[in-house]
Design brief:
about 1250 residues, eleven-stranded mixed β-sheet, 38 helices, ATPase_P-typ_cyto_dom_N
Length: about 1250
Amino acid sequence: MQRKSKTFVRGFTPKFVKRKRRSSRRRSGAAAEVEYLEHGVPPEGFSVQGLEPEEYPPPQYTDEEGIEYDDGEEVEGTGHHRHHLLHRSESGQWRKRPHWKLTTWEDVRVGDVVKIMDGESIPADVLICASSEDENVAFVETKNLDGETNLKSRSAVPVLTHLRSAQASAARKSAFHVECGPPDTNLYRVEAAVVTPDEQKSPVDISMMLLRGTVLRNTDWVIGIVLFTGQDTKIVMNSGNTPSKRSRVERQMNPQVFINLILLAMAAVACGVVDAILEQRNYPRGAPWLFGATLNDDNPKINGLVTWAFALITFQNIVPISLYISIEAVRTVQALWIYFDKEIYYEKTDQATLARSWNLSDDLGQIEYIFSDKTGTLTQNAMVFRQCSIGGKVYKGDPEPEDMPAKGYPVPEDNASGSQHKLSGSNSPGTDSDSTDPKKAMAVKLSDGVLHHFRDSDLTTDLKAAAESPPRSPQDPRILNGFWTVLALCHTVLTSVDPETKAIEYKAQSPDEAALVQAAADVKFVFRGREREILTLTTPFSEKPERYELLNVLEFNSTRKRMSVIVRKQDEEPSRILLLTKGADNVIFERLGRGNEELKEITEKQLGEFASDGLRTLTLAYRVIPDAEYEEWSERYREATVSLDDREKRVEELSQELEHDLRLLGATAIEDRLQDGVPETIADLKEAGIKIWVATGDKLETAIAIGHSTNLIGRDDNIIIVRGGGARDVYSQMWGAVKQFFPDSTILSDQNMQENAPTASRPSDSFSLHRVNTGVTDIVGHDNGQRPGGFVLVIDGSALADAFSDELHKDLLLRLAMHCEGVICCRVSPIQKALIVKLVKDGLGAMTLAIGDGANDVSMIQAADVGVGISGEEGLQAVNSSDYAIAQFRFLKRLLLVHGHWSYYRNGNMIVNFFYKNIVCVGALFWFMIYCAWSSQYLFEYTYLLFWNSFWTILPVIAMGLFDRIVDDHVLMDLPELYAHPRRGEYFSLKLFVIYMIDGVYQSAIIFFLLVYTYWTTTSRTDGYAVYQYEFATTIAIAAVMVVTLFNGLNIAAWTVWVFWALGIEIVLIWAYTAIYSVISPGWFTTPIFGNDHYLFTSAYFWLGMLLVIPLSLLPRYAAKAYKFIFTPSDIDTVRYIHKLHPERDFARDRQRGGVAHLRRTPSARSQHLRRKGVAARTDMSTGIRSVHHGFDFAMEEGGPALRRLQSNLSERSAPAHRRKRNASSFIPSFSLPQSIRRKKPPTSPPIHPHDDPPSSH
């Protein structure tokens, strides 16, 4: 078979490659991720031996490096296996045995079969054929793709699971090929099918793929076939090119430099033209200065051109070449200020904030939009089981120990030195065979992503009392037993035994799912694993392990918002069939049977308290199903699962048939730990006027939970949900949202929008929207139809894909988002994150900042004006692509509000003052042209002009860029509203540039003309002996330096010792230089101003001229600043004045009273709005459903293999001929920030329904 010439083909016959085992990493190329074996296989395909997995012998390895045999045969001729996997002689006899061979990533081709070992990165997009696990399941770490640190499960293609060795992979009897669509950027979709020789197609979905960039975990090996490589892999297609970033100040400065170039050209042209006219007019008149001007190199007809060229040199200082050098030096030091700032130094990891791009410091002060990742950026992705309500009684858990070890390893009550929870049972030591059996394990290890065990002394007492009480006694054990049984069985968690600690370890797809099962284990309801369809559970209510037969799994999706399992309890007569359910409170409550009203009312109030504490909630219920009902339903359900028409709809309808008349058990409350200070940081950034967008790969409900727990969504804000793939198209949803919530905006009045308004085939008013009373007075009144609070837009990835497909859709999305206080984008791919940033950056011209911590955030970070990487648990990919590296999200506040504010103010002020000081010098030279016949003659002695930018005026602007601070750092942190000034670009603009240029022109005219007319001639000598130009020119030079230095000082806000030194040294330098340079004898070298001191310093013209021109030059600027401060002070002026009068003032208190508005003694509508209490409402534009949000967040991985694993054996048992893979499910973490702990008297438990008992061992 010929090697593929390109990485994508519509169909192919695989080639076989692949990977080294862990023990063969001996050569220097150990960084290579893939081993491969070339072969010569006839184009008809491969034979497949029908061996069962247990029939394969263990692998056999040769001494040759990178070669692996796994067929158990003797090794022959290993020295010839370097180039081919399989080779046939002309006689048809095998000369080489199938084997695996190590290779580099670049040699992997489409169609190669690869073997990947545990802990290794995936080199390409690979279709799974088989794995080391009995059920052909593989676990991968996907943080480089979606930012999630939890493991995801993937499963093999059912028809390829026999390919468990090189021998089986290279067999010729089973030809097959793979048909797949073109490569795309969607991380959650793949279009492919495996076609067998009998033309049977087996569908392939993303749950059967290992994508490049992921890492194989907890799986010994995986054998797969390569579908896409190189540029066609999803991670590469979601990557962007590394941009070359330039700051906005630098971009704004370039036109100003161009203006100066135009001024230089105009001045030079003026000198050349006027000089040519004067020479040609005065030469015939016998002008003495033109005597002999008829030579080839001195001719009135060409001297104008020469004068033009000399004028370019004379006025060259107007082009601030030294400004570029100075500003780069200043930015370098500003980067050091950031690095040495102890306030943004993370002592735990010994990491300082690092400026990786030194030219963007001023951009930090102009950020208008922040785009943030979630996992590792806003959250720790670590869960804590905080509270639960069981039968109406709330268990809040015991306080956490103060000496809790770091990173999820607390000190348990019964094990003071470890992180595992000992279990009751036999104390006899286990044998070696028992050491890997979860049923024999004596402890439960704290799961990854779970911070500590759940303990509650009241719950322990109640459980103990309930275990000793008979049924239907005051201490009824049924609700307690049923609650924890549902929690311990209704999930997709796998179990294993840690080989070192011999403790059970739960492997969950998300930390919140692990936290629920871990909490059940902490109270002795220990899930001990699953053997095919049998679930094993130990409880305090039973001496022996309880066994449950798993019958069906009714999986989670974003519409159902619940998950159910149907189990049959074993070892009891009669065996009962139980439906165990957990999900959102609203979907559970509407499916409750009679007799639950009192408990429902109590639980609903408790859920509100949980939500007010920022906790994620989950409601638990159950139902006992009669055998006859289940048998009839099961048959119809099996038919629905194998149907080809409307399969999902039929399955959903049948699932709802059983999920009714539920008995309520209680609710759980989980906290997803945020990074330290995240809610406060987001609240402060919002108050600073920065709009924050969160882009995450999580589900919609999780995204909303993120918004609530991080203060992105306020308590009285409303949520507009736009989802793709629904009954209403995305454009109609956005149109309806604008029409309903922003009727007074001009969005829909735009002609282009009116021409593309939704029609009857695409209606925007397919449902009626009504205003929801949330109990809060509408801050804008009841008559204009506005909802209380602001609006937050939540949009998913499929809706974004639709919006980005058309310019009209993009425009409407951008306009809608502009009217919202925040935007949350869920289920987005890395490339969509970058497109979101570009939508705002290019569409609004706004300054954007993107922050993330994983490889999936690199495109977003590179697309933004400023990229910030967090050194978190997801590696350093984001940091390596970022402009600034920080250790914690909370450091972003100081980075922007202090360093960004200061840097932008310093750099903007420095640049305009740099332009100003140069125009003063050039202006004096230009005015002198009037008196020297426009001959481009120097006014000053040349060294004064030469040192103008080197010594005389450089230090004040450098000090301005390094040490000036408009307001102290603690004031900027306490009053985030002050960030509005730099955000609006007030410190550097074309208007400011023009003002400073006018200042320079005015001051140059005052200095030159007043001193020209002060000196009757150019010297103060009265004997008429000489007309000495440099005497009065030196006076102009010293006056200009004095004026420029004092003017720069007038524009500096904070006069530190360094500012005093910089300004003072300039004045000392010009005076000392003049005095010393004037006394140097011509015997040393020629000095044009020798003896100047004899006349200059003794002249009244000099001293009185100084006293005249310096105040007059500075007067307009001083008067303007005084007028502004007295009559139209800005917030900055007000705060600075108050801080000067009261240096010890606590501005944090002023912020609580209204912030800057309070300092101005005017009411702050916004601060009052922020303090209002209410309940957030939400409107789903795809369905028109309007509801009140109570903090629920329950999401599982749709389309994944987790539930598929649970159902696979069930399907085989019920219909072996129609084995079908089920959608996976996975809890997706939610986010919370406990704000208060309210202790209330626990209500009495309501009565139990007399007919149905919860799952119990009694």
